[in-house]
Amino acid sequence: MSQKSKYQSEASWRLRYRPYIVAAVLAFVLTMLVAPEVNEGDGMEPALKGGQVLVVTKKSYSANRGAPKLGQIVILEKTLAPEVYGDNIISRVVGLPGDEIEIKNGKVYRNGKEYITEGGISGAEGSLSVKVSKDDVFLLSDNRRSTMDSRNKKLGTVDMREIKGNVKFIIWPLSDLGGVQ
């Protein structure tokens, strides 16, 4: 076999399998960065509805790596409180490390100021006062009447390392396709 035909054979092989190799590498990278998750409950209504398929960007947080942003919707590991809530817990970050969170008369206060979630359903029942530790965040669901969040004593403030990722997009049903606020 001549040098030229050997080179053409290698080039032909590369061209033939290149799309498959690129697709495999891209699929591997995407599975390391994002994951689809199904919203099983109504805890984040009206922002998220039950049955929607969400795209979650995988992100790890800790006191050393930084905290999620205030108002960000996050998803927790399923194993965090399985006896209380068998599905993924999806909630909004309303308290960061060092914050004082207080709930009284159906209102949420962060560091002494009323905390307002745009478009959320009010009704944070009961009273609560908590200081968020340096490794934790305080989570509340938008639908405060019917869900699992940091008000529940079995969950409480959540260690940032238990956050699986950030909810970014709704991909199903197609009528709801778009970003999450």
TrEMBL record:
<keyword id="KW-0472">Membrane</keyword>
<dbReference type="InterPro" id="IPR019533">
    <property type="entry name" value="Peptidase_S26"/>
</dbReference>
<feature type="domain" description="Peptidase S26">
    <location>
        <begin position="21"/>
        <end position="172"/>
    </location>
</feature>
<comment type="similarity">
    <text>Belongs to the peptidase S26 family.</text>
</comment>
<dbReference type="InterPro" id="IPR036286">
    <property type="entry name" value="LexA/Signal_pep-like_sf"/>
</dbReference>
<dbReference type="GO" id="GO:0004252">
    <property type="term" value="F:serine-type endopeptidase activity"/>
</dbReference>
<dbReference type="Pfam" id="PF10502">
    <property type="entry name" value="Peptidase_S26"/>
</dbReference>
<protein>
    <recommendedName>
        <fullName>Signal peptidase I</fullName>
        <ecNumber>3.4.21.89</ecNumber>
    </recommendedName>
</protein>
<dbReference type="InterPro" id="IPR000223">
    <property type="entry name" value="Pept_S26A_signal_pept_1"/>
</dbReference>
<dbReference type="GO" id="GO:0005886">
    <property type="term" value="C:plasma membrane"/>
</dbReference>
<keyword id="KW-0812">Transmembrane</keyword>
<keyword id="KW-1133">Transmembrane helix</keyword>
<keyword id="KW-0378">Hydrolase</keyword>
<dbReference type="GO" id="GO:0009003">
    <property type="term" value="F:signal peptidase activity"/>
</dbReference>
<feature type="transmembrane region" description="Helical">
    <location>
        <begin position="20"/>
        <end position="38"/>
    </location>
</feature>
<dbReference type="GO" id="GO:0006465">
    <property type="term" value="P:signal peptide processing"/>
</dbReference>
<keyword id="KW-0645">Protease</keyword>
